[in-house]
Amino acid sequence: NWPDDDVWRLEERYGRPPDLIVSSPPWTQSAEGQDQWWQPVVDVGLTEDRWVTGVEIRPSLEARRVTHHSNVYLQQEEEPGDHTPAIDVTPRGSYLSEFAIGKIGDVFRENTGKLIKAGAQFTFDNHYHSVGEDVAATTDVGMWFYPKGFVPKYRVYGQAFGAQQSQATMDIPPGKVTVHHAYIPLDAPARLENYQPHMHIRGKAMSMEAIYPDGRVEMLNHVADFDFNWHVNYVYTDDSAPVLPRGTVIHLTAWHDNTAANRANPDYRQWIGWGQRSFDDMYHAHVNV
Fold it and tell me: Which SUPFAM superfamilies would you find in this protein's record (predicted)?
């Protein structure tokens, strides 16, 4: 039998449903029209700080027909100097996690986690497109917590490496295969927990390298056959997660195929720039640090 889609994929891993579910208010995407971005702010409902060991973002069944992505941003008071995110969309907050087609969720290894403080709020960034009929849509954020009072040794921060450079440099001429680069310096020692490349339908491949302070270069990951329909989150094992010194530079290389040979390409005659619609393109890597 085909598996039931109305389930929490991480429930099997943790042996229980989410400890807390936060939902976006409902939105109706009209049958025709431009793409829409629904960005409500919702109270998380916590009266005390809690550490998250896993998070899964799940559009409702009907919503999956119209959902391009659902980004969730965390709004909470941080200590000065405690958190400098790679992506901070004022006034929406800092990046928590996201749903894209094919992604299950984020799992944080033992003794690490994300901190959600008492009084925090989520800002949803739900990107919807029309499919020829009205569709009612909501998005749920399911969280699994460490036991009350437990404080993991390491706090994990969500990053979108390369997003700012992508917005500034994305340029794909008609009928061409292009290569773009982004360089992200690490201002503190860091362990990378996962690698999730993100591009759109012209995305072809993406690599992530570490350029060490002594000049050495190490290939960390390379996805050679990117598929927009499967946003795979590659989670490192305990003995393979890169531990990088301060001053390391993350080097992303992204390839896009805007030729007739790309079967997913709707029109190779178009000149493509950065944009959030599936017909536009971008490149960055979702990495928990």
Answer: PHM/PNGase F
119 burial class (0-12, 13-18, 19+ CB within 10 angstroms)? middle
DSSP 12: H
Q: Which of 88, 65, 67 is nearest to 24 (CA)?
A: 67
CA 163, 168, 172, 177 torsion: positive or negative? negative
For residue 62, what is the DSSP state? G
Q: Is there a domain that residue 39 lies in? A: yes
List, for residues 156-188, the tens digit of each pLDDT value: 988 889 988 998 999 999 999 999 999 999 988
Residues 169 and 214 in one domain: yes
Q: What is the domain count for the chain?
A: 2
Q: Cβ neighbours of residue 274 under 8 Å, at least 6 residues apart?
A: 166, 167, 170, 280, 281, 282
Give the Cα separation of 72 and 92 in Å (integer): 9
Q: Render pLDDT for 54-104 as a digit per residue (tens, 0 to 9).
A: 999 999 989 889 988 898 999 998 876 665 554 444 445 678 888 888 788
DSSP annotation of 65 = G
Poorest-pLDDT segment among 13-17, 75-79, 126-130: 75-79
Residue 2, domain member (yes or no)? no
Return d(Cα 222, Cα 264) in angstroms, integer: 21
CB 28 within 8 A of CB 133: no
Percent over 70 (pLDDT), the chain: 93
Encoded tokens for 206: 């993406």
Are the beta carbons of 75 and 121 closer than 8 angstroms? yes
Note whether 199 and 180 are within 8 A (CB): no
